[in-house]
Design a protein that fits this description.
This protein is about 65% helix and about 0% strand. By secondary structure, it is mainly α. Helix 4 crosses helix 5 and helix 5 packs across helix 6.
Protein backbone atom coordinates (compact mmCIF):
# COMPACT_ATOMS: atom_id res chain seq x y z
CA UNK A 1 0.00 0.00 0.00
CA UNK A 2 2.78 2.42 0.94
CA UNK A 3 4.65 1.62 -2.27
CA UNK A 4 1.52 2.31 -4.34
CA UNK A 5 0.94 5.68 -2.65
CA UNK A 6 4.54 6.74 -3.24
CA UNK A 7 4.27 5.63 -6.85
CA UNK A 8 1.24 7.91 -7.38
CA UNK A 9 2.27 10.94 -5.26
CA UNK A 10 6.00 10.87 -5.93
CA UNK A 11 5.90 12.12 -9.52
CA UNK A 12 3.58 15.03 -8.54
CA UNK A 13 5.92 16.20 -5.81
CA UNK A 14 9.05 15.62 -7.93
CA UNK A 15 10.39 13.12 -5.42
CA UNK A 16 10.85 10.44 -8.09
CA UNK A 17 10.82 10.48 -11.86
CA UNK A 18 7.40 9.82 -13.47
CA UNK A 19 6.87 6.60 -15.42
CA UNK A 20 8.08 6.56 -18.97
CA UNK A 21 4.59 5.92 -20.50
CA UNK A 22 3.29 9.13 -18.86
CA UNK A 23 6.01 11.26 -20.35
CA UNK A 24 5.60 10.37 -24.02
CA UNK A 25 3.35 13.31 -24.81
CA UNK A 26 5.08 15.73 -22.51
CA UNK A 27 7.04 18.49 -24.14
CA UNK A 28 10.74 18.19 -23.60
CA UNK A 29 12.15 20.66 -21.13
CA UNK A 30 14.44 23.18 -22.79
CA UNK A 31 18.00 22.97 -21.73
CA UNK A 32 19.61 26.07 -20.39
CA UNK A 33 22.50 27.19 -22.47
CA UNK A 34 25.71 27.14 -20.54
CA UNK A 35 27.73 30.30 -20.88
CA UNK A 36 31.43 29.98 -20.43
CA UNK A 37 33.00 33.26 -19.45
CA UNK A 38 35.90 34.17 -21.58
CA UNK A 39 38.52 36.83 -21.37
CA UNK A 40 36.93 38.73 -24.25
CA UNK A 41 33.82 39.52 -22.11
CA UNK A 42 35.76 41.98 -19.97
CA UNK A 43 37.51 43.40 -22.98
CA UNK A 44 34.19 44.31 -24.64
CA UNK A 45 33.17 46.57 -21.73
CA UNK A 46 34.17 50.21 -22.12
CA UNK A 47 36.83 51.29 -19.69
CA UNK A 48 36.11 54.34 -17.55
CA UNK A 49 39.08 56.56 -17.00
CA UNK A 50 39.81 58.46 -13.81
CA UNK A 51 38.94 61.72 -15.53
CA UNK A 52 35.51 60.42 -16.57
CA UNK A 53 34.78 59.23 -13.02
CA UNK A 54 35.86 62.59 -11.63
CA UNK A 55 33.65 64.42 -14.13
CA UNK A 56 30.66 62.21 -13.32
CA UNK A 57 31.15 62.80 -9.60
CA UNK A 58 31.29 66.56 -10.12
CA UNK A 59 28.10 66.49 -12.19
CA UNK A 60 26.27 64.46 -9.53
CA UNK A 61 27.51 66.74 -6.76
CA UNK A 62 26.46 69.80 -8.74
CA UNK A 63 22.99 68.36 -9.29
CA UNK A 64 22.57 67.53 -5.60
CA UNK A 65 23.83 70.95 -4.53
CA UNK A 66 21.49 72.65 -6.97
CA UNK A 67 18.55 70.65 -5.64
CA UNK A 68 19.40 71.49 -2.02
CA UNK A 69 19.90 75.16 -2.84
CA UNK A 70 16.55 75.26 -4.60
CA UNK A 71 14.81 74.06 -1.43
CA UNK A 72 16.05 77.13 0.44
CA UNK A 73 16.35 79.75 -2.30
CA UNK A 74 13.02 79.09 -4.03
CA UNK A 75 10.94 76.81 -1.80
CA UNK A 76 7.49 75.66 -2.80
CA UNK A 77 5.02 77.06 -0.25
CA UNK A 78 1.38 76.15 -0.79
CA UNK A 79 0.12 77.57 2.52
CA UNK A 80 1.81 80.71 3.84
CA UNK A 81 -0.32 80.63 6.96
CA UNK A 82 1.34 77.36 7.90
CA UNK A 83 4.68 79.19 8.21
CA UNK A 84 3.16 81.60 10.72
CA UNK A 85 1.52 78.76 12.63
CA UNK A 86 4.81 76.86 12.81
CA UNK A 87 6.61 79.97 14.04
CA UNK A 88 4.06 80.48 16.83
CA UNK A 89 4.16 76.82 17.85
CA UNK A 90 7.95 76.51 17.78
CA UNK A 91 8.77 79.98 19.10
CA UNK A 92 6.11 80.66 21.73
CA UNK A 93 4.06 77.58 22.58
CA UNK A 94 6.94 75.11 22.95
CA UNK A 95 9.27 77.25 25.12
CA UNK A 96 6.29 78.52 27.11
CA UNK A 97 5.19 74.97 27.85
CA UNK A 98 8.75 74.12 28.86
CA UNK A 99 8.76 76.94 31.42
CA UNK A 100 5.35 75.91 32.76
CA UNK A 101 6.37 72.24 33.00
CA UNK A 102 9.59 73.07 34.84
CA UNK A 103 7.71 75.32 37.28
CA UNK A 104 4.97 72.75 37.91
CA UNK A 105 7.40 69.86 38.41
CA UNK A 106 9.87 71.82 40.50
CA UNK A 107 12.66 71.29 37.96
CA UNK A 108 15.29 74.04 37.61
CA UNK A 109 14.49 76.43 34.79
CA UNK A 110 16.68 76.42 31.68
CA UNK A 111 19.67 78.72 31.70
CA UNK A 112 18.31 80.93 28.94
CA UNK A 113 15.23 81.81 31.02
CA UNK A 114 17.32 83.49 33.73
CA UNK A 115 19.31 85.76 31.43
CA UNK A 116 17.41 88.87 32.61
CA UNK A 117 16.66 87.74 36.14
CA UNK A 118 14.62 85.10 37.89
CA UNK A 119 11.28 86.91 37.58
CA UNK A 120 11.64 88.14 34.01
CA UNK A 121 10.64 85.23 31.81
CA UNK A 122 8.74 86.80 28.92
CA UNK A 123 11.63 88.45 27.11
CA UNK A 124 14.06 85.49 27.44
CA UNK A 125 11.33 83.13 26.28
CA UNK A 126 10.68 85.25 23.19
CA UNK A 127 14.39 85.55 22.43
CA UNK A 128 14.93 81.82 22.78
CA UNK A 129 11.75 81.18 20.82
CA UNK A 130 13.06 83.29 17.95
CA UNK A 131 16.14 81.06 17.73
CA UNK A 132 14.07 77.88 17.93
CA UNK A 133 11.55 79.00 15.32
CA UNK A 134 14.34 80.05 12.95
CA UNK A 135 15.99 76.65 13.27
CA UNK A 136 12.65 74.92 12.72
CA UNK A 137 11.95 77.03 9.64
CA UNK A 138 15.24 75.90 8.14
CA UNK A 139 14.43 72.29 8.97
CA UNK A 140 10.94 72.59 7.49
CA UNK A 141 12.37 73.96 4.26
CA UNK A 142 14.90 71.14 4.06
CA UNK A 143 12.14 68.52 4.47
CA UNK A 144 9.70 70.38 2.15
CA UNK A 145 7.06 70.55 4.86
CA UNK A 146 5.25 73.46 3.24
CA UNK A 147 4.36 71.54 0.10
CA UNK A 148 0.75 70.42 -0.05
CA UNK A 149 1.64 66.74 -0.35
CA UNK A 150 3.11 66.75 3.17
CA UNK A 151 0.18 68.19 5.11
CA UNK A 152 -2.98 67.96 2.97
CA UNK A 153 -4.38 64.43 2.69
CA UNK A 154 -8.01 64.63 1.61
CA UNK A 155 -9.80 61.28 1.39
CA UNK A 156 -9.62 58.88 -0.30
CA UNK A 157 -6.22 59.51 -1.90
CA UNK A 158 -3.29 59.31 0.49
CA UNK A 159 -5.47 58.65 3.52
CA UNK A 160 -3.86 55.35 4.56
CA UNK A 161 -0.25 56.44 5.00
CA UNK A 162 -0.83 60.09 5.88
CA UNK A 163 0.52 59.81 9.43
CA UNK A 164 3.58 57.89 8.26
CA UNK A 165 4.43 60.61 5.74
CA UNK A 166 3.87 63.38 8.26
CA UNK A 167 5.87 61.64 10.98
CA UNK A 168 8.86 60.87 8.75
CA UNK A 169 8.97 64.35 7.19
CA UNK A 170 8.68 66.01 10.60
CA UNK A 171 11.54 63.88 11.93
CA UNK A 172 13.68 64.91 8.97
CA UNK A 173 12.92 68.57 9.60
CA UNK A 174 13.62 68.14 13.32
CA UNK A 175 16.99 66.54 12.63
CA UNK A 176 18.04 69.46 10.44
CA UNK A 177 16.69 71.99 12.96
CA UNK A 178 18.61 70.26 15.76
CA UNK A 179 21.81 70.51 13.72
CA UNK A 180 21.20 74.24 13.26
CA UNK A 181 20.56 74.64 17.00
CA UNK A 182 23.82 72.82 17.80
CA UNK A 183 25.71 75.12 15.44
CA UNK A 184 24.16 78.22 17.02
CA UNK A 185 25.05 76.91 20.49
CA UNK A 186 28.63 76.31 19.40
CA UNK A 187 28.83 79.82 17.98
CA UNK A 188 27.55 81.26 21.24
CA UNK A 189 30.20 79.40 23.21
CA UNK A 190 32.86 80.52 20.73
CA UNK A 191 31.89 84.17 21.14
CA UNK A 192 32.21 83.89 24.92
CA UNK A 193 35.28 81.65 25.34
CA UNK A 194 36.97 81.79 21.93
CA UNK A 195 37.76 79.11 19.37
CA UNK A 196 38.64 75.55 20.31
CA UNK A 197 36.68 75.46 23.54
CA UNK A 198 36.41 72.02 25.10
CA UNK A 199 35.84 70.32 28.43
CA UNK A 200 38.66 70.75 30.89
CA UNK A 201 39.78 74.21 29.80
CA UNK A 202 38.42 75.98 32.88
CA UNK A 203 35.70 75.52 35.52
CA UNK A 204 33.73 78.43 34.04
CA UNK A 205 33.76 77.04 30.52
CA UNK A 206 32.87 73.55 31.75
CA UNK A 207 29.88 74.87 33.70
CA UNK A 208 28.68 76.85 30.68
CA UNK A 209 29.06 73.85 28.38
CA UNK A 210 26.97 71.70 30.72
CA UNK A 211 24.31 74.41 30.97
CA UNK A 212 24.12 74.79 27.21
CA UNK A 213 24.02 71.02 26.74
CA UNK A 214 21.17 70.72 29.24
CA UNK A 215 19.23 73.48 27.50
CA UNK A 216 19.84 71.82 24.14
CA UNK A 217 18.48 68.47 25.32
CA UNK A 218 15.40 69.95 26.98
CA UNK A 219 14.60 72.33 24.15
CA UNK A 220 15.02 69.57 21.57
CA UNK A 221 12.74 67.20 23.46
CA UNK A 222 10.07 69.86 23.98
CA UNK A 223 10.16 71.03 20.38
CA UNK A 224 9.97 67.46 19.10
CA UNK A 225 6.95 66.62 21.24
CA UNK A 226 5.06 69.83 20.49
CA UNK A 227 5.81 70.02 16.77
CA UNK A 228 5.09 66.35 16.15
CA UNK A 229 1.76 66.71 17.92
CA UNK A 230 0.95 69.85 15.97
CA UNK A 231 1.86 68.39 12.58
CA UNK A 232 -0.05 65.17 13.17
CA UNK A 233 -3.07 67.21 14.26
CA UNK A 234 -2.75 69.34 11.12
CA UNK A 235 -2.71 66.19 9.01
CA UNK A 236 -5.88 64.93 10.69
CA UNK A 237 -7.55 68.31 10.18
CA UNK A 238 -6.93 68.04 6.44
CA UNK A 239 -9.40 65.13 6.32
CA UNK A 240 -12.08 67.31 7.88
CA UNK A 241 -11.78 70.21 5.44
Amino acid sequence: MLAAILALVGPCQAWVAPPAHLCKNAAPRPRRARHIKSKNDDEDLPEESLGDAWKAGLENGYAVGKMVLRRFASPEVDDQGLIIADALIAGIVAPGLEILACTALGVPLPAWSTALGARRLVAPTLLRGATLSTCWFGGALSARLYERETYDFPPPAGADDRFVVTFSRTLQAGAFATALLIVSTQLRLTLVFGFGIQLGDSPASDAEIFRQFSDLIRDGATEALVLLSWRLARTELSRLD
